[in-house]
## 1
Amino acid sequence: MNKSQRVEAAIKGQSVDRIPFSVWYHMSGVDQDPVSLAETTAELTKKYDYDFVKMMPFGLYGVQDLGARIKIYSQQGKPPVWEHGPVNKIEDYFSLKPIPAIQGTYGKQLEFTELLRKQLPGDVPYIQTIFSPLTTLHKLVGDRVLEDLKTSPEAVRYALAVITEITLDFINENIKRGVSGFFFATQEARKELISLENYRTFAEPYDLQVLQSYVNRTWFNVVHIHGLDVYFDEIAQHYPGNVINWHDRNTEPSLAEARATTDKAFLAGIAAATKVVDGKEVRDDIIQDGTPESIIAHIREAIASVDGKRLLIGPGCCVDQFAPEENLAAVRKAVEL
């Protein structure tokens, strides 16, 4: 099987010659330059024999063009940092305007897509990372949005509509450039962050508009549920897309528990997120902190928990940028059947 065939078969629950896999992490030393980012991504894909690419534009790419002030270091291990947003009072939400996705920071990510398509082997699927509209708005204005949606819902809805329009344009431009699908990330589906009622009002309708714009046009579509104690069932039941990714080694449900509730494929199995220890969230990254032997055992445990069916191996979130090479190489060894 080639890589696209392997990934597609795993998603459909068909037999595979081995479990498809990939690993991803931020590349803050090169992610401000689409040329270097595409070159580095392609080099790592070939070096570690990844079956697919989860594209890694920097996490704040969706807010810079809308007025967020970002401190950029362009150093490995020092990702860009949000300093302040464009909303200081409620009226400022109404100053946000749609922009074409071919310009500015969004445009740089499209250049990344175009360059990556030319540098990857032809059988390697690649999926662009996009964020839910509420996630983007949260990144743009900060935590105030969580209160503003309660006190000034119309202003927040206006801003969400603007961001949705931009996201839809960005999706269309990526499809023109040949992506196999999208990695749709929501960082807002956490019970400690937002009530289910408010999630269904301020997140889900916009998420569905975004997802429904491409799920019938691309074949490899992942929904990522970021964080601990998340609305997994809500998303698994209502969001289109054929693959779910979440912090499966650090929060409920486990892979086995999730398999009992949905027949969607899972992109999961590697601990690379946070966990709660003594009431505090701490980093849990086996690719950074483990050994090749422990990583192989860890991944094979995940494979066994769902009998290797409808499974792609990958991290629950991003692996550390400084993960040892021998540990990254161990992931490939672990997926042999």
## 2
Amino acid sequence: MKAKEGFILTTTLAIITILTIAGAIGLYIVTKETRLTVDTSDSIKALKAAESGIEIAIIKLKNRLITSFPYSFSGTIDNATYIVTLDVNGNSFIIDSEGKKNDAERRIVASVEKKGSTFFPFSINGKLKINRFHNKGRSRSWTDAQLGVKIISEELKRAFEESAFTVKVDPSGFDFPKASNINISPEKYCSDVELNKDKNLTLSDLKELLKNKSGNVFICGKNISIGGTGSENALDFDADLFIVAKENVTISSELKFTGNKQSDNSADNLSFIAGGQIIFNSNAGIDFSGSQEGYNILLYAQKGIESTSFNDLIKISGNQNTEYTSNVFIITPETVRTKGNLIFEPSTTKKDVNFLIWADKGIESEQGGFKITGNSGNTFGNNERNFSILVSNGNVSLNSWFFAGQEQRSGLSYYEIKYYCEEDTTIPSFYKNIYCQLKDMIDGRDSKTFKIKSWKIY
């Protein structure tokens, strides 16, 4: 009987021991799984905190809240913390974000850059049509000539390629720089009072206003009309002339300007700025001749440039720019429409001449286009005629593309735009700033869109 009781006791103790051990093991497993669950949850929250740090850093970059680098900040989200450090590496921003929740730590290192605009010297986000393509003369092969276009015929594409152009066709379109983003407006140069009254000027009036004037001369008005004939058709003056209208500038006669300042031998500068349109009626156009030191011409209209005249919109003739780089800008966020040539240029030049035609919604020249028949004088090969056409969302339709001179033809490249912005000392700051704004758009300096180049999780 005692033996039996001893066996039962031993068995009972064994069972209790086994159950105790099993319970301990079960408790250990449950505790471990709970700990793993907590650790996993903390790790996820730490990772989310690190991601939040990256997102906040990009928001700060977009809103230009960071002015110097390296830069650090920290914060808390969902009871997890993040510490973020930003630095610059070339054109990229390096964002290092560390998230922490209890003992869990996660880290993300991202490289981001601003998304700039695509750029070709000839950038047409639409259809390019040219009825007559003529590329002859001393320099038939272009340099720095890249054309980005949405739609082009095979025949015209081949004609450009035979002139040493590189042509990229993308039917889905491009993101080109937009003239609507450029910072030019009448209010920057004239007071509200000056811009509140219409002005009607004859050529004689204009000549009288410029008599004995030098430096910058601003003629301001709500609507400005220039027409009629004066005692002398050609205007010869020492001032840098700015015609600025809150609404429209209307020109109803050919404006002939002769250069060669007597006061300081600097470049001749002529600018038309309109909050509305620049309109050329009748036989109107701009005839610019004999500016031996160089010249800068700007047509800027917020609501488009229209010419019903069969005259050349801008004609440049004579012996030009022996000393300074010269520039012609035709810029509008809308369209440029002409009946005659956009540019007729038979002049002799000895320094670089740049032509920038920038119209967001398209360019149309019904019976003209480009007519370039000049030459580069004795220094041929050392200077260029650089051309750029920028259309961000429209078509280009030209009757003719006529290049038959003795000049060196080239596209206006990004590196030249950068040079004219940052290094050329011969271009007045007002015109230089146009190159700087275009460069910033290409670089994405003012962009609020960022592209993630790399994303590493630790």
## 3
Amino acid sequence: MFSCTSDNENDNEQNNQTLNIKVEITNGETVGNIYCSHIIYNEDQTEVGSALFAEEFINPPYEKNISVEKNPNGGRIYLNLTTHNDFDEMNLYINGEEVCSKSGHQPTSNSYYTRTCVYEY
């Protein structure tokens, strides 16, 4: 028996295998550093992580796009920003959908603070 799929079905299957990640920081002062990693689960559910990108002294507005293969055993995208300056928002999008948004207003003067987003699949 043979089966046929349309190009659109093949595209959808491929998109289900890929995580298209978009990170944006809107308006504000220079922020300290940003770090993004992909942590995957092995078959025995142990975790293995790899850095996707790390940057320092970012001037908003900022946007970074990256794609990674989805792990069949599951995993998570971890995004961390550390700064002492204000910014409007840090947004994380996965396959075009906003999955996390954090404001960046300094809690106390001249102290560093962290904003973190985690997306599990």
